[in-house]
Amino acid sequence: MDYLFLALLIVTAFASASFLRTKALTTVAFILVFAFWYICNMFTGNGVTDAVYYHLKINVTGTSIDDILPKIYAAIIFIFLCVIIIFASFKCRRIIPARKPWVLNSIFIFCCVLTLTQSNAMRNVYNSFSSASFGKGLEVARNYSNINYKTDKKYNYVFIYAESLERSLRNIDGVNYIPHITRLANDYFDFTNIEQIPGMGWTMAGMVNTQCAVPLVLPQGNTANNMSHFLAGADCIATHLQKNGYTTEFVRGSDKEFAGGDKFFSQHGWQEQHDKNYFLTNKLLTEKDLSGWGVHDDKLIDHVYNEFERLSAKRENFLLSFLTVNTHPPAGTYLSVCDGKIPDNIDNPMLKSVSCSDYLLGQFIDKIINSAYFDNTIIVLVSDHLMMANAASDKLNETKEKRLNNFIVIKKGLKAQQINKAGTLLDVWPTVLAFSSAETTDFGFGHSLLSDAKSDILDTWADSKNISNYLGFASSLWNYPSLNDPMIFKEGVFTLGQQQYQIPLFGVVDKNNNIKSIYFEAFATNAKKITEEGDSLFYINDCAMTSTNKKGLCGYELTRQNTTQYQITASGITDRNVLDTVSPLYTTDFISVSSGPLNQETGMTDGIQHFDMPRGVTFYSVRDGHLETNQKISFDTCNNQQISIETVNQHLNDDITRLIFTSNDSAFCIPYEVRPSINNVLRSDAASLLAPRQQFIGVYDKNQTKFVIGVPEKPLDVFISKDDFKLYQLCNIFSECT
Fold it and tell me: Cβ(408)–Cβ(183) under 8 Å?
């Protein structure tokens, strides 16, 4: 449509000689604005976004010429078109008759107005200018650098992400649980002060931190698989290595789709990904070689070494990286291959798994060091993050020293050295480039720890414990679209702008409808936080989940003044309706409950405290509008544990007259003998008709039960008024109940 608008402008401008030069210059102005949008869209896929202004402000030196050339060609075409139009307006003025000047000039003006108001490009550019402050992320844009390294010698890289193997494991109560890694650290380069700050702390973040040198900002850290593009605006190391002739291969024992990992790697320079399905498809293991998190480390590491030999023998440069899995919380997975290889007196299951992983990694690295290919190989080992809550947490938290990550570089000829300069995982690859004798090693927010350069982000964290500006910048790299961008729902796929999203999709938009944050799970428990961020809340989901009479895909925008409803079809937005109705989210004080099937974020919050929900059915006590910290009763009904109505009733007294109850994961697993006991709670036979992973949430007192039933395999979000314990469903929140 935009091309049609431009064509109409050109045609109507030259339809009459009257004011021809003025009309030509006006048309050129429109073309230049469109050209700006078009070229920006080639970079972002979402037109003019925050990232465009960030990168206009910062130095983009180092951007690949292969990426830039198509944009240059496009710019040349647009400039050539503008030159032709201006030249023609001077040369053809006497040839074109001045016929019906007022009529034709009025048509030209109408086309200008039409283009201004209806062109997607014009609207996008206008909205981008009106929101060009971009939070305070712009204030740190000058500290961000694109990758621009040069090196005379190409090394091969083996990059190891050691799941949760933090440096603190070297000394817990005087015991070193990772002696092999410690030995290697003492023999080569050991970085002793690698801190963890916001935007870090889980596996996907650790990978983005190291490879792109930015903190990872996503409200729900492991939900990036719900969007089609992963951090599209980031400049990451594997992309540059691949373009410089490197073979890039990543090996992991889990499913590559977890947390959007497959998108991140495939979109940021990785040619090959070997995951659990790869191992199974190629018959590299049997089911006994798998744990809940994926391929056991012994089989995975054996495969990685085979790949190391294969790639090295080709005499072509490569980046080979892998992620271990058996030290994943809560207790890790111990492997029998470590019998007799680690101390027998380790009884903590996590620390036992840690020592086993340390042994396997030590053996692997030693094999490379002793191979014929070590001369041209740099080995890097990092812990992807500090260990999360696990069976050894008490011991880790009692350590007197600050908890830090491991970062070790192993290269032939290096003299053993410890570097105590403070750094983060953002500094890992800039430092590795320094070991490669590269020029201009720093990129992103990272700096080589071999240089005197200071880490601006770490200094800011040390001074104020607040890096919100850096997180704001990192958030812009997602290239979030705007709700003003085209929306379509076709063949079960929702597309907003240039990106596809899973539903439900909700989050915050600013006053110009630019999306600031995105969530996919647990709407009820996140809604209060979202509304407190200000601006507006948006929500998009299957109409069956939000409305009693609509079908298809429904969208909502909520402010403190009104509620906007619309439906999304293959042709775009239809049936848009603005109500002078304020959502109860802004007027009522709620206890919010989100339950759902396995592997989804669930929980309950009273606005102050947040409670996780176990599998089965759980009852929560409420006193003065707040959830009682230690007053909950859980029944693992999926494991056939009957609900004791007597126990439930014992929790009702003068102070606590009602209990909130909720299912989670699944209230029923074969066999179904617990259904009668749940019917006793519901005071109906509804449980007899429920399917596995069909959720219910309600309020129970001595005289009655009120409850809501969800859809099988779908999350259920319910809001419960603190004043009268009234249940609010999504149709109440979005004014859709009839």
Answer: no
Angle made by CA atoms 11, 14, 20, in degrees to the nearest 5: 140
Residue 370 C-alpha from the chain's centroid: 40
Selection from 626, 719, 633, 618 nearest residue 663 by Cα: 618
**Residue whose token pair is 């990168």:** 55
DSSP state of 508: E
Q: Rounded to an integer, what distance in angstroms lies between the CA atom of residue 659 and that of residue 437? A: 65
Q: Which of 519, 529, 556 is nearest to 541 (CA)?
A: 556
At 522, list the tokens.
């647990």
Report phi then psi at 630, rounded to 5: -110, 10
Say what angle helices 349-369 and 297-313 make with each other, to 10 degrees: 20
Query: According to the model, what pLDDT value does residue 131 have?
Result: 41
Residue 135 pLDDT:
47
Beta-ladder partners of 234: none
Rounded to 5 degrees, φ, ψ at 553 are -115, 130
Q: Which pLDDT value is given to residue 44?
A: 52
User: DSSP labels for 566-626?
Assistant: EEEETTEEEEEEEES---GGGTS-EEEEEE-STTS--EEE-SS-EE---SEEEEEEEETTE
Q: What is the DSSP string of 139-190?
A: GGGGG-B----B-SSPPEEEEEEETT--GGGG-BTTB-S-HHHHHHHHHSEE
As given in the structure block, the two tokens for residue 708 are: 């809501």
pLDDT tens profile 521-543: 999 999 988 888 767 999 999 99
Q: Closest Cα to residue 387, out of 208, 210, 164, 200?
A: 164
Question: In order of start, what are the domains of the chain with their CATH numbers?
Answer: 2-132 (no CATH), 156-474 (3.40.720.10), 487-585 (no CATH), 589-733 (no CATH)
Higher pLDDT, 385 or 130: 385
Nearest to 159 by CA among 428, 434, 430: 428
Going by the DSSP 8-state scheme, the letter that residue 702 receives in this structure is: S
pTM for the model: 0.72
Summarised one tens digit per residue, pLDDT across range 588-647 is: 999 999 999 988 899 999 988 888 899 999 999 998 888 886 678 999 999 999 999 999
Q: Looking at residue 719, what DSSP letter applies?
A: E
**The amino acid at 183:** R
The pLDDT confidence band at residue 122, using thresholds 50, 70 and 90, is confident
Q: Are 605 and 592 in contact (CB under 8 A)?
A: yes
